[in-house]
From TrEMBL:
Signal peptide bounds: 1-17
GO molecular function (one): endopeptidase activity
UniProt-recorded name of the protein: CPBP family intramembrane metalloprotease
UniProt entry keywords in alphabetical sequence: Hydrolase, Membrane, Metalloprotease, Protease, Signal, Transmembrane, Transmembrane helix
Species for this entry: Rubneribacter badeniensis
Residue stretches making up the CAAX prenyl protease 2/Lysostaphin resistance protein A-like domain: 51-161
Residue ranges crossing the lipid bilayer per the database entry: 51-72, 92-109, 121-141, 148-169, 184-209
Length: 219
């Protein structure tokens, strides 16, 4: 079931990390400015420089994946699992709590201040919901694998596919709250798509706990 959820989740790759450029902080801005400056210079493309820029973008995506997955899945989820207990209910509570924290990561004062109409308000609301649903899927994957690196690989791939081209082009989006109806429609569609993925993830967590013979205990 988790494999089916993963397949469905892949369909949301591009939009899942929409607005992640803002989460990359000054590093992404520096990369974008550097790429834009190189493009505007009119000088012949420097293959070595282009390769170096690409390597930096890949490294940035990997570092972001290590940080976010290490904090929200490994550290937070392990701590929450210890607090909530090893029962299926406890495992689900821990997964929801870590997913909620991950969703809150995608809310910033800048995004809220960008709200100017119904469309931008809906974007500001949906993005953390979308991130939280994705967090449930990643929590289930971590529960199954107990390894950081598959999570880092998936997270880095999301960021690379969605934000990497913009960084290389020097176009760094500072917020996902654009007020654009097409952007909102895509965000809403992928959020809806992630609902069955999250449901399957919860079922996977419950099934794994029951498979380990944990039916009682705290939670």
């Amino acid at each position: 079931m988790l494999a089916v959820a993963a397949a469905a989740g892949v369909a949301s790759v591009v939009v899942l990390a929409q607005g992640a450029g803002a989460a990359f902080d000054p590093a992404s801005n520096a990369l974008g400015a550097s790429a834009a400056s190189a493009g505007a210079s009119g000088a012949p493309a420097d293959a070595l420089g282009a390769a170096w820029t690409l390597a930096l973008v890949v490294l940035l995506c990997l570092v972001t994946g290590v940080f976010e997955e290490g904090v929200f899945r490994v550290l937070a989820l392990d701590a929450l699992s210890a607090a909530c207990g090893d029962s299926p209910r406890g495992k689900v509570r821990a997964a929801f709590a870590s997913a909620a924290l991950f969703g809150l990561l995608h809310v910033s004062i800048g995004d809220v201040s960008s709200v100017s109409d119904a469309a931008s308000g809906a974007q500001a609301f949906l993005k953390p919901v979308q991130a939280g649903l994705f967090g449930l899927f990643m929590a289930a994957l971590y529960d199954r694998t107990r390894s950081l690196w598959p999570l880092v690989g998936i997270h880095a791939a999301f960021n690379l596919l969605s934000v990497g081209p913009a960084l290389l082009a020097g176009d760094v989006r500072q917020t996902y709250v654009t007020g654009s109806l097409p952007d909102l429609a895509l965000l809403a569609a992928t959020t809806v798509l992630l609902i069955p993925v999250a449901v399957a993830a919860v079922a996977s967590i419950v099934g794994a706990a029951e498979g380990r013979g944990v039916t009682g205990g705290r939670g």
